[in-house]
């Protein structure tokens, strides 16, 4: 039996590269936001003197530091969210997903959590490095400043919007869990109803057998009495169907 690993599952699912999927909302909207922010920084730096640029760099370093703390909290949210979701998917639901050929879809959802977790982890490291780099006594280079601003802002916006999209994913997983759990409940109810029907059949057959034996009735006498009671008590629209069922059940014509 082949042992399932993260790499083997990833190769089987083959999740997309979310960062470069320009059709996704979180990608193109993050791109727009980062472009707007970079253009604003370009205008500010062009119109600023040396003192104002130093002040801008100080503000940027503070933003970087606060962003790191915020991303650490987001990373904790993603890790705990993935742990909770994987805990709610039990073996029965997994088996039903496999039977309905939807197991890979579930895995792709889990891989999206893993992807954004790794992405945020790398982004945190990058932000820390840029923070210390900005603290060094280096000459200001507008191209490097704007380039880093664009890349880091895009990464930050993407992380935020992707994490928000995971909330919708959580709702979808809850719906999947509820649907398949509902099927289990229906199956249990149907099984219980079948047991009740079988029990009632056995109980009625036993009572009928005892009554026939006690009264020393023949089968013909019993069936005649049964037909008579049906004709007397049963509504007219159901008589034929009930008599047909009685004949089939007790094997008489």
Automatic annotation (TrEMBL):
The keyword Transmembrane applies. This is Uncharacterized protein. The keyword Transmembrane helix applies. Keywords: Membrane, Transmembrane, Transmembrane helix. The chain crosses the membrane at residues 25-43, 63-85, 106-132, 138-171.
